[in-house]
Amino acid sequence: MKEISKRFGEVQALDNVSMKIGSGEIVGLVGENGAGKTTLMNILYGLYKADKGRIIVNGRETNIQSPKDAISHKIFMVHQHFKLIGNFTSLENIILGSTSGREDFKRMNLQVYRKRIEELMREHKLEIPLDEKVKNLPAGTQQRIEILKALYRMAELLILDEPTTNLTPQETDELLRSVLEMKKRGISVVLITHKIREIVETVDRVVVLRKGKLVGEVPKNEITPEKVVEMMVGRKVDLESELSNIIVPRAPGAEEAEILRIEGISTTGDEGIKLKDISLAVRRGEIFGIAGVSGNGQKELCETIMGIHRPIKGRIIYNGKDLSEADVKERIKQGFRFIPEDRMIDGSLPTMTLSENIILGFQNFEQFQRHGLLLYEKINESARKAIAEYEIRAPNEKIRVGKLSGGNIQKVVVARALLLEPGLLIAYNPTRGLDIGATEKILRQIVELRNSGVSIIMVSEDLDELMLVSDKIAVMYKGEIMGILSKESFDKSKIGLMMAGIREGGIGK
Amino acid sequence: MTAVSKTTVKDYLKAAAYYLLAIAAAFGVAGLILLTMHQDVLLGYKTILTTSFSSLPNFALTIFKFTPIYLMGLGFSIPLASRKFNVGIEGQFLLGAVGAAAVGITLTGMPGYIILPLLLTVALIMGAIWATVPALLLYFFRVNEIISTILMNFISFYLVDLIALGPWRDVTAGYPMTIPISSSARLPIIGSQINIGSLFTIALAVLGFFILYRSTFGYELRASGSNPIAAFKFGIKTSYLAPLSLVLGGAVAGLAGGLEVSGLYFRLVEGMQSNYANLAIIVSLMARGNPVALLLTSFFFSMIEIGANAMQRTMGTPYEIALITESLMMLFVMTVDAIRQKRR
Amino acid sequence: MNYAELTSLLGYILVLMVPYSLASMGIMVGGRVGVFNVSTEGVMLSGASAAFLVTYFSGSYTLGILSGIGVGLLIGLMMTFFANKLKIDQFIVGILLYIFATGFGSLLYKEIIGITLYPPRVNLLPRIKIPLLSQIPYLGPILFNQDAIVYITILIALLLYYLLFKTSFGLKIRSIGENPRAADALGINVFLMRHIFTLIGSALMGMAGAYLALGFTGIYTNTIVSGRGWISIAITIFGRWNPLWILVGALLFAGVEVLVYTLQAMEVSMPYQVLMMLPFIITLLILIYTSRKAEMPAALGKPYDRESIEE
């Protein structure tokens, strides 16, 4: 790819980026969130069109206008958010779109397709059930389906966008092994990621982007995580030491009061993953982390604690009060605050103003209304303060939130959670999609809250981040808690095993 | 990150100019249609746009039409805030009319100040009841309100036919309608033409605006329309706000029906709903659900209606041309919106 | 009632099945690519108006049906332009086009024929007696003595079923309605297919309207559709967006309509207005029933924008 430039509105997403990919080569494409990695590959795959630049495949200049063109050049991309049809079976998903012309209109010959896929599954050691509806399959399996889609089409270049987000550490290892397997067969792979540590062993080369520009390339033997991060961010960053400075370590033996106790919570599973007999306790001024591959009940647990779902069994006691029957509004009044999973889908009101978004959940509070009528001066004032404090890029508090960028919407969601003296903050991936600077800031804020006595339940898919700030970590797997570890006993491989369903001291269910 | 530009007076003017362009385009298409029918295009434009202001009776007529259009528009706007399309305003209007006629016909010999409030309340309640069926279907079975409210419309047509040809039938009339309501049940008139029903519109506009945009209830309603999932997760009871908004919309539409019976027809007449529903939908969409802006759009369309009717009388042009123009107007306005969105 | 009357009555069920099933299949076809076109009632009216006028003046049934289809295509073009290209809310566009098409259809008729005391008539589509098959006792005269469009409708249903569920092409089309992003990433031409199938869907609706005028009533009035378009939406949902089930649903509703007429003719002691309400009440009940197992294309009703940021 030569001199690719791309602009989205007023943002220069890519500026004159060039990169080469050799045959049978594994290239790591790294950079922060928003650096342009996905955009670059989307252009290669035909989903976006570059404003400037050329793409040359196998020595010949090409004009890739759509994924169809990319696929015809044997380029295939597996996205971070899987592009699978939930209501179709795995088989149907793999063969979808693989035929064209006359063959399209003939009766589908499922036996022939099936045979071919089974052969591929054996060759590459990627097992999947072929006749299950994809929406019922777990993330790891879905990823394998995506890879099989590429192999079925005889891809020569496979692009994997943030492939390890939804995997346990063990599954990540398996994935990287299959990537090496593909290299043996001459398939080139581009791994887009911001988690350098994981891919260091596997890649031949690392290409670093920052804010849309090419910073440089690092060949295999010179790769160190520190060097790459420095190139990604532009300065020396050592998140670990900075944060550990502000975490007030607990004096051993100091008994802090338990503020939240959850006993034996079980749910029906109608809303997603079924929770089975969850019990945990959170102390005042503590960060309680929840680890696990996404989709194992973390979201459901957060929402049940928040009051969004009703458990069929169990109790939730907060500050001495049994809140098991309390609805969300009541819990918010008691001090519960929520940063939901998806800022757009769960967290924002796109057609309403920033002010109105900030007070979502607080609209009945005395500060903001009298006799049922909203006090807009107060509301707008709070909104203005939040804009300043979190550096939200918005002209004023009256702007419709739908017009803000993702990162700014996340800031609104966080601002809302921290607006009025939180007692218990339930945060799901609070730093998702934010660049290192903002991530740092929010983690710092969360730690400061903890120091001032607020309790925080934090779910994160980034195990490193979680291990950094949490006082305790509970690992979830298929709706159950596999184990709870305190800071002293944090161990990545132990946690990894629990994430895969293997309890301490034996094989889990 | 992007720097978003501030909205200035200049931007508002630009927006207004674009919308005028859209409206002009719709009229342009109408003009083309007129041409194919060998009509005088300029005369047509003149008639449509100026008839309302050409004489006092015409202006009064415009106000007469404006009232039900506005109220039904409000009946569509309230559910619209929670993203529900209450296409059943027609049926709710008719049920309100039925209720009003019932009160007006049966309660004779009572003074106006008792009958009228009663009559209007009954109209309100009947409209609400008619909307309650789709509301319940929505709440319990998640049935799409577009289909359910329209089906209720059709049922209401036959109901009206049944009543208009039933025991209250006016046998002297050549058309299905009931006997007139008692004189005390009729709305008092201001001046010599306009009844007080029109004042309701102003009152409701102000009330509607405050409730929708300044109250916590309105906030929660709009939130559940903006993003029902987020609203729900932060404690708003979206599951019954949407059906409730339908019932409220039905009440307002029912009131419109009651006012038509008590202020204009003085009886239940089959077909009295005219095409107010279609107009109400368009004016509501155009006003983006804002009860105050609705006053303007309703008046504008009422004006066009009077003009179109005049055109049919004097030029022989089918009045349907108004419907075509009006629906195109809305489509073009939305086109303008969509294009401007893309530019950003 | 004697045997001949019963046969002709049952035959009417097949006749009425046509507009219901064509309209419902029109909605389904659009729905399978994610476009929920609710303008059906208006398109049917315009289709009926155009078809009647063309047949009345030209004497040709074929031209009439084609004009119905043509009008459907025209309004479908508007639908796909506003909803797919400009990405305006599909329901709003659908409702506005319903209003537009209603005005258009009645304008057309009013201009050309105007208001008359006795509406002009055309002869209904001629029946085709299929040799041998129509001799079968009992079923023969009902099933195999119908006009051409009835047979064509059934063929369309079978064809659509085969196309959508038995071919790779169908798989591609259905994927567009399930997850357009996924389909796009696989090289399927989402945009083109959405346009084409919205048009086809609308054309079918226009054809349904044309048949009402030419195959059922022989005249045109502004009330010729009287709710069948809206009911068709319910039939589509009831039929789970599957042509064969839609056919069943259409037969059921045609049956209800015929039942209502029969009861009226038999002068049952119920006021006829109540009988006329029956189809709509039954539709409401069906909607309740289908809500249990609502199975519709996952991405129905949403516009698709390739470059919209997916967080």
UniProtKB/TrEMBL annotation, chain C:
Pfam families: BPD_transp_2. This is ABC transporter permease. Its main location: membrane. It is a multi-pass membrane protein. Keywords: Cell membrane, Membrane, Transmembrane, Transmembrane helix. The keyword Transport does not apply. It comes from the Archaea. InterPro entries: ABC_transp_permease. CDD domains: TM_PBP1_transp_TpRbsC_like. It is found in: Cell membrane. GO terms for molecular function: transmembrane transporter activity. The chain crosses the membrane at residues 6-23, 63-84, 91-109, 148-165, 186-213, 245-264, 270-289. The keyword Ribonucleoprotein does not apply. It comes from Fervidicoccus fontis. One of its GO terms (cellular component) is plasma membrane.
